[in-house]
Amino acid sequence: MFSMPASGIENQISRIEENMKHKGRFGDYGGFYVPEVLIPVLEELEEAFYRFYQDEQFVADLARLYKDYAGRPSPLYYAGRFSEHVGCKVYLKREDLLHGGAHKVNNTLGQGLLAKYMGKTKIIAETGAGQHGLATAMIGALFGMDTKIFMGVTDIERQSVNVHKMKLCGAEVIGVEGGSGTLKDAINDALRYWTANVTDTFYLFGSACGPHPYPTIVKHFQTPIGKEARRQSLDIIGRLPDMVVACVGGGSNAIGIFSGFVDDKDVRIVGVEAGGRSVSSGLHAATLVAGKVGILHGAKAYLLQDEEGQVHDTESVSAGLDYPSVGPEHCLLKDTGRAEYVAAEDEEVLDAFSLLCRCEGILPALESSHALAWLLRQKGKLDPEQVVIVNLSGRGDKDVGIVEEHRPMNVDDK
Ligand SMILES: *Cc1c(COP(=O)(O)O)cnc(C)c1O
To answer: Does the N-terminal or the C-terminal CB of the chain have fewer CB atoms within 10 Å?
Structure first.
């Protein structure tokens, strides 16, 4: 119902484009390709966002929550021992230290507060790895709102600890059976539920993708990462970094940190996608690296699809990057060449995970480990004086079981 193949949609595109003018457009990407019933709801959301995001009270409330609830600002940490392995100066933006263990809380606090200001009493959300579900369940408890989390059954199995944590926070977890039981299917069901429950329900979307206004809203609530990192870089290092690297799933942590540096033309910007292989065809699953332009979940973007325009399922070692589309702004940054997009493979990701554990005592999320893995591959190509900031989007506690599955370790292992 909400996902359409790229071919045969031209009429529909031009019709809706006329209605929606240039709302939520990043170049030709993004937009508003949704069923009629969702249009007034998304417009209500857009209006509310523009009314409140600069409102003095809203800004003050959110600043307090970022500081006292989430633990912002997150540190910019010089990873000295890891730097020796890469051959340049590596700083980690420690989003892993935030409450909940990832950058996701920045967005859920922002949208949760918006929901409250809008007078909504119920929240729904989709989740893949469970990180966004958990971050939503947390703020559902915080704001006293009835919370439902849609999660694919495959992901529920892969991330049972996060499911348990969501339930502890009082959320209801709804298992989604359709498709491959992953993030794409959870989003379809959440959107379907929303269309039937729009009056009291706020859909708290998890990444900087989907229909307008979500890419704009989610980016806004993730911009503290980039603002802080830029200021910290000037304070701690005395200059801007030469390069900023972040992993890309839907694109929220990446657009958050990139936003701080996009106007600094000398800063190289790199997004790292999951190169885990697709089950059906053996093609690489990296959306920006290997995708073609199409429409999924209400937005035009690079999409993984086959010759017939069927959307591919992705398969990566980390469920958090397991999404066959990507945020529209990243598509534009790719086309204009302002940012580069590359892929990291599962094996090198697991190597990078282990290395950061062993030389820094920091367990990175497998998602974040993609950024570390690509950087490690640049060894020998980088000037030792180069400064690189890697956005450490989350901590790896949730992934210990998956790592153990792929790299069984006995306790005497040296
Ligand atoms: C969800 C998640 C991601 C991927 O989502 P983006 O929207 O691309 O940031 C990356 N890292 C961690 C730790 C996550 O939980």
So the answer is: C
Is residue 376 lining ligand 1, measured as CB closer than 6 Å? no
CB within 8 Å of 151: residues ≥ 6 apart: 126, 127, 128, 130, 133, 163, 173, 174, 175, 176, 186
Other beta carbons within 10 angstroms of residue 296's beta carbon come to 28
**Segment 204-212 mean pLDDT:** 94
Q: Are 296 and 365 in contact (CB under 8 A)?
A: no
Q: Are residues 294 and 370 in the same domain?
A: yes
104-117 vs 56-64: helix crossing angle, rounded to 10: 140
Residue 11 domain flag: no
Question: Do 79 and 58 fall into the same domain?
Answer: no
Q: Is the same domain home to 176 and 258?
A: no
Per-residue pLDDT at 276: 63
- Please state the φ and ψ torsions of residue 168, each to the nearest 5 degrees: -60, -35
Per-residue pLDDT at 226 exceeds 60: yes
Q: Does the C-beta of 248 come closer than 6 Å to ligand 1?
A: yes
pLDDT in tens, 289-327: 888 888 888 888 888 877 666 666 665 666 666 667 889
Sequence-distant (6+) residues with CB within 8 A of 227 are 259, 260
In a domain, 265, yes or no: yes
Does residue 283 register a pLDDT over 70? no
Residues 138 and 187 in one domain: yes
Average pLDDT, the chain: 89
Residues 38, 86, single domain; the answer is no
pTM > 0.85:
yes
249 lines ligand 1 (CB under 6 A): yes
Q: Which of 94, 103, 273 to mutate to test the pocket of ligand 1 (most atoms within 8 A of CB)?
A: 103
Going by pLDDT thresholds of 50, 70 and 90, the confidence category of residue 34 is: confident
Which residue has its alpha carbon closest to ligand 1 atom 1?
Answer: 320
Q: Give the pLDDT score at 2.
A: 43
CATH number of the domain bearing residue 315? 3.40.50.1100
Rounded mean pLDDT, 383-399:
96
- The total number of structural domains in the chain stands at 2
- Domain span at residue 306 reads 71-101+223-406
Kindly state the tokens that stand for 258. 């990139």
Closest CA to 147 of 182, 183, 193: 193
